[in-house]
Specification:
alpha+beta, 2 helices
Length: 65
Amino acid sequence: YSYALRDAIAAVKIPVAEVHLSQVYSREEFRRKSVIGEVCKGTVTGFGKFSYYAAVYALMNLVGE
């Protein structure tokens, strides 16, 4: 787990999304624990490369509000 990454995300003033290509909640138990989830605006998981598209789209809309 990367607590340094969590601290960096918490320090910035822009929204951040946690993205996973696979559906982590249907995989092994150890993959279900997110260190950065609490400091991210949201999480997109399980849509393959489209997970990134969805996250960028959502973040662009949040920044534009």
